[in-house]
Design a protein that fits this description.
Layout lengths: L11 E5 L3 H7 L4 H22 L3 E8 L7 H24 L3 E5 L7 H14 L6 E8 L1 H18 L9 H6 L11 E4 L18 E4 L9 H12 L9 H4 L6
Parallel strand pairs: 1-2, 1-5, 2-4, 3-4, 5-6
Bound molecules: farnesyl diphosphate.
The site of farnesyl diphosphate has 19 residues, from α1, α2, β2 and α3.
Amino acid sequence: MENLDLSKLPKHIAIIMDGNGRWAQEQGQDRLFGHYQGVISVRKVVEAATEIGIQYLTLYAFSTENWERPQEEVTGLMTLFVDTITKEVPDLHKNNIRLRFIGNLGLLPSHARAALDTATAHTAQNTGLTLIIALSYSSRWELVEAAKNMATKVKAGSITIDHITETTFSESLTTSEFPDPELMIRTSGEFRISNFLLYQLAYAELYFTETRWPDFRKDDLIKAISDFQSRERRFGKTSDQLLPNDEK
Ligand code: FPP
């Protein structure tokens, strides 16, 4: 952690937690066992993010495409989400963590939605890390919803087409209250974004690691942040434009 420049931390880190299934199968275990081990990594990474001083952490827990997995795995995952969230809320609250959920939550069973609502309400006033769980989330779904939302407003006459800007459009996304992630991490050796925060990741630095999610720990997070800090973020400008005047 001494290697990190605390004045240059990403405010928001997003993570695609991949590799639970492969990790479990490599140990001759059932895929669900991998998801249970993945929860330990979630706990460790949330602890580490709090300690380092990250303000927003988004975890991709379940995509809309994941509904197509075998029924047994989907049911197992839903039980795992509800049980973990319910069990962890007191600890999250004690650590001043605010919990939020993004995604097409209408597709979740009603008891699961109720558990998420309770957890959200319980931690709503906390001012430390905002932990955002993407559940039943798909970025294309979110973008289409935002487009429909704006079209409805235009049709109703409450806004004109000229009111549709990058700012108002991003206010229609599920992430409207959060800054865009500056760093996106994907575990387990896949080099894809998989329908995750397509709009919000426009300028994010992408970091890929071979480490399977159940093996991902604080040191891996620090390595990713340190790699982020070594990159030059130009936002379309030239290197020279980024230098302070006295260094030119
Ligand atoms: C992807 O690995 C992982 C998931 C679909 C589930 C992730 C869920 C957890 C880590 C539990 C998190 C719990 C809470 C409360 C947020 P995969 O199964 O696609 O792995 P594979 O690519 O090796 O098959």
